[in-house]
Amino acid sequence: MADIKVPVFSESVSEGTLLTWHKKPGDAVKRGEVLAEIETDKVVLEVTALQDGVLTSIAKQEGDTVLSEETLGVVGDAGSAPAPAPEAPAAAAPEAPAATPAAAGPADAGRREDLSPAVRKVVVENNLNPAQIPATGPKGNITKADAMGAVGQQAPAGTQAAGTPAASIPAGARPEQRVPMTRIRQRISERLKDVQNTAAILTTFNEVNMQPAMDLRKKYQDQFVNKHGVKLGFMSLFVRAATEALKAFPVVNASVEGKDIIYHGFYDIGIAVASDRGLVVPVLRDTEQMSLAGIEKAIGGFAQKAKAGKLTLEDMSGGTFSITNGGTFGSMMSTPIINAPQSAILGMHNIIERPIAQNGQVVIAPMMYIALSYDHRIIDGKEAVQFLVTIKNLLEDPARMLLEL
Predict the structure, then answer these.
(1) For residues 285 and 269, is the Cβ–Cβ distance under 8 A?
(2) Among 17, 149, 226, 288, which one has the highest count of C-beta atoms within 10 angstroms of its own C-beta?
(3) Would you name the residues annotated as active-site residues?
(4) What is the pLDDT of residues 185-244, one digit of tens each?
């Protein structure tokens, strides 16, 4: 037999929430198979089986708060019988008319074995029909998030005949839906509010003519892909430009600790990535030593891990500077919020063709607004502006960046 333990959390994480069980008592398990998922303030951790066998018992239910190295359940040897569940005292059921098949949604939910206890509780309490809930869990199971998302979105089970369309919202109705924040969303909101209350945040803007960078990509894209197996994107050019600008203005790469300024002699740049569970910022380590191809591969790997919910605490720890790209969603201009304890963040935006004056003539050029939000406690406006101008100059003449001029 082997106890199923909560993974050891990092020093900055004290507890987590048991998000999903992928197995139920009596199910066979294989060594390395994912048994459960735990959501912390930063990431979702997978709990895997340490041996082949049978899940004989579970000690924690979905939605329970769990601590580092706490026991979640037990995996026994193959052939082990699951521990019997405690019997609840029988309660006299009130007399009611026999339910028709169309009205048996919640009653059926109470008997469905494929629903976890946490999901069954949400379904029954909110009178939901499980057959109408889109399932995103493993093997087509309904997760607690699926059930919570259906609250207020479907008519109560039993209010419509089978085969008829969902009931429309009555005219004048003002529906509402209350959904609890995930741990990650709670942590994001706390961190962003804390930095607003602590740092003296200011934002400066500039614009970049992206034509030279676009010409570079067009000219060398096929050769780049053939040699490195990855496309040359704008993000790697921005990471390289930001690294060179950080070298020129070390205070932008620094952080505040009490009454001290900590100057970092390395360049770890966080790349903001949107995921289903919220914004995450995995970190590229030692970007001054990375090639453009290495940067592109690392960012692509982070994006895949974020989409699959596989980012680790190590992926997102540390960082001395961050870059966020709102342009992928169509943003033309924004004032990004600093990712504490860092002191600055660079915002990229949409590329729009606009008329500009060039060599005394009006031409149409693909332009991007860029923004630098910075902590004015340690970074002066002059340094912030010059930092952004450096990035502009490097992107408008990429050869200078590659030749380190």
Answers:
(1) no
(2) 17
(3) 376, 380
(4) 787 788 888 888 989 999 999 999 999 999 999 999 999 999 999 999 999 999 999 999
